[in-house]
Amino acid sequence: MLRLSVLLSIALLALLVSAGTVAVSRVKPATISLGSRKIAPGEGVQRRALSPSDVPLKDYFNGTDLQWFGEIEVGTPSQTLTVVFDTGSSSLEFASTLCGAPCKNQKQFDPTKSSTFKDGGRTSTITFGTGVGVDPVVGNNWQLSLRSATDVMSVGGLNAGAVSLFLITNQTPTFAPDPFDGIQGMAPRLSGFFASLVNQGLPSLFSLFLTPNSVGGAEMTLGGIDDSKFIGSLTFADITSTSFWQLTSSSISVNGKTSRTLNTRRSMIFDSGTSNIVLPQADAEAVYALISPDIKPNPAEPGTFGIACNQITSLPAEISFTFTSQQGQPFNLTIPSSELSVGPFRNNPSLCQTLINADNFSIIGASLLKHYYSVWDIGGQRMGFAPTGI
Ligand SMILES: *[C@@H]1O[C@H](CO)[C@@H](O)[C@H](O)[C@H]1NC(C)=O
Ligand SMILES: *[C@@H]1O[C@H](CO)[C@@H](O)[C@H](O)[C@H]1NC(C)=O
Ligand SMILES: *[C@@H]1O[C@H](CO)[C@@H](O)[C@H](O)[C@H]1NC(C)=O
Predict the structure, then answer these.
(1) What is the dihedral of CA 252, 258, 261, 263, to 10 degrees?
(2) What residues are in contact with ligand 2 under a 6 Å CB criterion?
(3) Where are the alpha helices (DSSP H) in the chain?
(4) I need a surface site. Which of 185, 233, 236, 269 has the fewest CB within 10 A?
(5) Which residue has the CA at smallest separation from atom 13 of ligand 1?
(6) 133 lines ligand 3 (CB under 6 A)
(7) Ramachandran area for residue 343 (φ above 0: left; ψ -120 to 50: alpha; else beta)
(8) Is the CB of 181 under 6 A from ligand 3?
(9) pTM of the predicted model, to two decimals?
(10) b vs e for 102-138, b when ≥16 Cβ sit within 10 Å of the residue's Cβ?
(11) Confidence label for 7 from pLDDT (cuts 50, 70 and 90)
């Protein structure tokens, strides 16, 4: 489980590298003006030919909620695969028969059995950056070997036709236990299957209902908003990057208090493929200072913090991030205290990992998204939130 919180940032870092052979460095996401990407009023309803579709999601749960994934259909006849719908990355990659033993726990797409498959012939290796997770976080131990291709695909019964994708031809053992077969990037610029669906007239937004495992019924709605899943109305905020689902936060508070370090503006990236929260070291320490002096870095797993498991359940740790709505009003998104523990470290099971990892960027993951219905509006370059009451 803890390993999967690494996967989050991994999925995020995949976006930071271009396709091709790359070594990941710590890249600070740039802020890019998005003015030209806004759609004119009314434009979104002109060519509406496809109706919204709900895609059920399963929770990869191992002591804690880690990842949510759902089915896609690829090839002719279609082969069913499962992918994490990852707002922190932008491409599609999944296990294939070219991978074999290293992908033995995943369902492997067989390109020889698809009449519509076209090999792209381009091979690449993505080395994912880590340093924000638990479990062995050593050098380049998160790596996928890929081969470019195109094939037809559909999601939620919506047929996207031929799309670019990557077959996984090899992977490091760190990926082996995943109960899903690949990753579908859902970054805020149109690409892949979603671009095709929008070209066919699907509204250019999707929504996520990432419930805890104990509740179940998680879903993604493509092209629409399922207003039976939240309480009250959605609050929307403009994103501040065209590459990331990024909002500007004016302040962080913990149990109703803030501090000089925390009461400042920072850009935060919302990543459905990350289960934890990631903040720069000083911010992570400032949050923990308001929770307990006993939360300390775990040097065995750089970037992580922990506290004795028998202390963690009684700690109040309500963490609020303040954002500004499109109407200029402040609003809070709040993580309840119950999310503080990520679970025991493998190398020291009496020590429990705490929610926030330290790295040189700020990511809000599923531990917050689990408590809100979220709308990811690519056409409007904005995000919407409403409490689920869960
Ligand atoms: C669940 O966690 C345990 C303990 O950390 C680990 O040994 C096991 O491989 C994990 N299972 C999956 C499916 O990730
Ligand atoms: C956000 O939470 C903080 C801490 O509890 C509180 O002081 C502030 O008034 C809240 N802001 C809004 C807009 O609710
Ligand atoms: C962040 O970057 C600084 C300077 O580049 C470095 O010293 C520090 O170790 C980095 N922190 C993390 C958590 O990676």
Answers:
(1) 60
(2) 253, 256, 320, 322, 330-332
(3) 2-16, 192-199, 281-289, 309-312, 366-369
(4) 233
(5) 177
(6) no
(7) left
(8) no
(9) 0.87
(10) bbeebbbbebeebeebeeeeeebebbbbbbbbbbebe
(11) very low
